[in-house]
Write a structure and sequence with these properties.
By secondary structure, the chain is of the alpha+beta class. The protein is about 45% helix and about 15% strand. It has 3 domains: about 200 residues, 2-Layer Sandwich (Beta-Lactamase), CATH 3.30.450.40; about 55 residues, no CATH class; about 45 residues, Arc Repressor Mutant, subunit A (Orthogonal Bundle).
Length: about 325
């Protein structure tokens, strides 16, 4: 049986008053909402909405990531839209800047504030999926009466953070529903889908930020995905996703000086060996393009046939050609 507004507000206030209960992540958020943000769980006003100009500015600030997210927003909505859920992409201030929803559900979701331009920060809305995800920078679900405001206790919201190409928190991806029959099992499936989509959006945004780079996978730790490293034509690291930075134990400032990818990934190569490997690769490419013709390969490399034969012997490539 659903709680009344007063019953929920009383429960929140009583729980917040018991300091020992703060070991719960939900209660910790309730305490922030009440003690730090000075919110009243019985507040009935609808969520704040940005003006048209404010929304356009918010959208412009995150436009590259919004573009990178489009196909994954579509895919996620295909998975959850048919069961009465909407998909929201919010900026780091908790403002949805893009969404997916079934037209037949639009009126319902808009009345709940699950719409672009509405402010879902924890500072404004208390404990909720988007705002608390951003505050705690972790994937989470805020289910029904876990919300701070009594007026939001019919909602179930599952969110995951999204980090930009420099490893900074940039957005939150959310799937919300107001269905009364949403089961715990299905909420868990939604959580997996949201986290997976958030990581794919990060990857796509990262690739778009380094269009001319080559990408390497970082080691996977704790089954969280190792992330990507971007390297230039000289195999120097020019970028890394947040997951890669965490996996490799590097700081946000590690890209201030050039760093060979092999060094970052724990390689044991020396400058001399690196030079040999680069020379070997250049010779092999020339031979491949000339279909094994040593004279043609030497001409392409700008060296004599005799010089190429000496390189083939030194690099132990003589037998192959």
């Amino acid at each position: 049986m659903a709680q009344t507004t007063k019953e929920h507000a009383d429960q929140v206030q009583a729980t917040v008053a018991r300091g020992s209960a703060a070991r719960s992540a939900v209660v910790a958020s309730w305490r922030r909402s009440s003690n730090f943000h000075r919110l009243d769980p019985a507040e009935c006003s609808l969520p704040r909405r940005l003006s048209g100009a404010e929304f356009e500015n918010a959208r412009q600030q995150i436009e590259p990531l919004v573009r990178a997210a489009q196909s994954n927003l579509d895919r996620l909505f295909l998975a959850v839209g048919g069961v009465g859920c909407c998909v929201l992409l919010a900026d780091r201030n908790g403002v949805p800047v893009d969404r997916r929803g079934a037209p037949c559900d639009d009126e319902t979701f808009k009345s709940w504030g699950l719409w672009t331009g509405t402010v879902w920060s924890e500072e404004c809305e208390g404990t909720n999926g988007i705002g608390t995800c951003i505050a705690e920078q972790r994937p989470l679900t805020v289910h029904r009466d876990q919300h701070f405001y009594a007026r939001n206790t019919l909602l179930s919201c599952t969110s995951a953070p999204i980090y930009d190409h420099e490893g900074r928190l940039a957005a939150a991806l959310d799937v919300s529903s107001c269905r009364a029959d949403l089961t715990e099992g299905f909420v868990n499936l939604i959580a997996v889908a949201v986290s997976d989509a958030a990581r794919r959006i990060e990857m796509e945004n990262f690739r778009l930020a380094f269009p001319d780079a080559r990408f390497l996978f970082a080691p996977d730790i704790n089954r969280g995905g190792g992330g990507l490293i971007a390297v230039d034509a000289d195999d120097l690291v020019i970028g890394a996703t947040r997951s890669a930075r965490l996996a490799l134990g590097v700081s946000r400032d590690f890209l201030k000086k050039p760093l060979p990818a092999a060094d970052l990934l724990g390689g044991t190569s020396s400058p001399a060996r690196d030079l040999d490997q680069a020379e070997r690769a250049a010779v092999q490419r020339a031979l491949a393009r000339s279909n094994g013709n040593v004279s043609a390969a030497a001409e392409a490399l700008g060296i004599s046939r005799a010089t190429l034969h000496r390189k083939l012997r030194r690099l132990d490539l003589q037998r192959a050609h």
